[in-house]
């Protein structure tokens, strides 16, 4: 079965063709990074127009790269929630138009569930149940994957998403937008004990990052040597150390409480090699299996939409031409 998949929930326009929910035949992504860099963040209206500019080109390239006849496409899968409403509507309407023209079904896919599904692309041995930490620019969620389509939320951020924290600090350090990866680079050469940050104590497995973000801003405001390389490297290393410790701690704690032996990560921040290294080390210590997608499948891409779309399809979660887009949507809901 061939699924044409579309992702347009934020600032990446992506198309993919996925075979039988496992093999990525083609995946083409156009990033709007340059468009939003000047504003220091994603401007929803600009993003929606950016998707309109990109979508036909991206989808044409996706079909060309796959080198398969358009008649072979059996269904179209599209992110319909959560995300920015204007950008989502561009993808959803393209998907509905394509489905109508070809006489094939349309499958609405939850973006967070798709991030989790990115793990299956290169880890065919990974099967539910398992635990997944989804960390991206918009989400920080600890999820129990019961089966391919049923998820239970174990914890989530009460304020900022972890990627948002990396991006905000990076922007204030003059690293551009989104600066998570650039901050990660500086952190490699900084002293991670230079600045003190505390991990909040909550009464469950939720996260909170606003205190850390405020503390980082205070260090920046009070710095005598703000422009020095050493200050930036040390702040990046110290904040990364605390965030990684916090994420790892809750993930391992949840695995213990729920008695789950397989854990995974997903989302843009999961491309952080230090985070993966620390979680992997903990997994070795605790006798847990650890899975992660490669960086190209951590950040937003349509291949993961095609994978999750396949599982929704075979479980009968098929949408129709009334499919709409929603800014918020829990991975716990049926589709
Ligand atoms: O999954 P994604 O592409 O988009 C959302 O669904 O939000 O994630 C983008 C986020 C941005 O916040 C970006 O700064 C962050 O992932 N990111 C990183 C790294 N690479 C990307 N954060 C920390 N370290 C990295 N190496
Ligand atoms: Zn995402």
What do these coordinates show?
With 335 residues, this protein is an alpha/beta fold. Helix content is 45%, strand content 19%. It contains 11 helices and 10 strands. It has helices spanning 33-37, 44-66, 85-102, 111-122, 162-172, 180-187, 210-222, 229-258, 273-286, 295-298, 303-314; strands spanning 2-7, 12-19, 23-31, 73-81, 106-110, 130-135, 140-145, 151-156, 262-266, 289-291. The strands form 2 sheets. A 5-stranded mixed β-sheet has the order 3-2-1-4-5, with helices on both faces. The protein has a 5-stranded mixed β-sheet with strand order 8-7-6-9-10, sandwiched between helices. Helix 9 (273-286) links the parallel strand 9 (262-266) and strand 10 (289-291). Helix 6 (180-187) crosses helix 8 (229-258). It is globular, with a radius of gyration of 20 Å. The two termini are 20 Å apart. The model has no long low-confidence stretch (mean pLDDT 96). 5'-O-[(R)-(carboxyoxy)(hydroxy)phosphoryl]adenosine binds at residues 10, 136-138, 163, 166-167, 178, 180-181, 184, 267-269, 271-272, 299-300.
